[in-house]
Fold:
Amino acid sequence: MIDKLEMIPDLRSMYIEELQQVMVEMGEKPFKARQLFDWLHNKRIESYDEMTNLSKGLREKLARDYPLMSPEVVEIQESKLDGTKKFLFRLTDGNVIESVWMKYRHGNSVCISSQAGCRMGCRFCASTIGGLIRSLSASEMLEQIYEICRITQERVSNVVVMGTGEPLDNYDNLLRFIRLISDENGMNLSQRNITVSTCGIVPKMYELAEEKLQITLALSLHAPNDEKRKELMPIAFKYSLKEVLDACRKYFEKTGRRITFEYALVGGKNDSEEDAKQLATQIQNINCHVNLIPVNPVKERDYVKSEKKVMENFKNKLEKYRINVTIRREIGSDIDGACGQLRIKYIDKPE
Ligand code: SAH
Structure:
């Protein structure tokens, strides 16, 4: 299935220069590539029929040789509390993925998936329960956003790659996605408004630091030492906390972009004062911001949220060490809010 999909050329994942080559191969003038790119990524149409400045013959050839494949919306859940919307998409090979649309005072944000499933195995995360099925193409990442724009008819100002999957485990497609969505001839989203979250695949973090991008790197830390991190995240057996934090320092040094640390507070596991103190000493000399997230209980796992007071204490302790810290507002808690929950529910009992 995967091989077959990869054999179908995917125009929406191509850079303008690559489209130029396709045009030349089809006996067309290279400038047509810009028009095509504009239709695909700026006007974001769904069918070649709408590309009125391309000849009918070219449109027919494109439709035959390069079918446009868009994920199809299967379900939309809307939170009655805050208007957060969760979208379940079916990809052309039948796999399902989810994305979340969030309204904030400073603009709308979309959280996208980078893979169908995930092989990182974090203990508290629903996305990893069925393992990795496959990585998404750049166009499958783009289309989550484009389709949400078509449906909501609203602008998107922030994109976070924090849905299902480990983006740095799908590195090449992720890079293509970032370059395409920030292309001035396309959606032209500022890279400063893109956040990529990783569980900490150290060699890829170093590679990313060299790409000359302006995106924010978010590191899922979740523990103040290796021992506790190993209990929550199998990746910690591969890379030590020191190695991960060194990679974060390098990322800042190379890009000037402040690191975001994500820390899911799990009741009784990583939320003591001692944990906060240890965390503070580990990250004190890194230019960073800490995002505390009350762990979202997943039915398949037995973790519980920290109490409100415990969270406040944890935050205060970090602040004593002059660390920038916020407790992430819980949104969409009345829908299947946690990473991968809607998808898992759908896979459990499809239709
Ligand atoms: N694989 C990447 C991105 C996807 S997960 C990563 O690990 O960062 C996005 C964020 O949600 C991560 O910080 C992840 O640890 C967190 N997360 C996953 N399940 C969660 C849950 N049940 N409660 C709170 N945060 C969760």
Summary: The two ends are 22 Å apart (CA to CA).
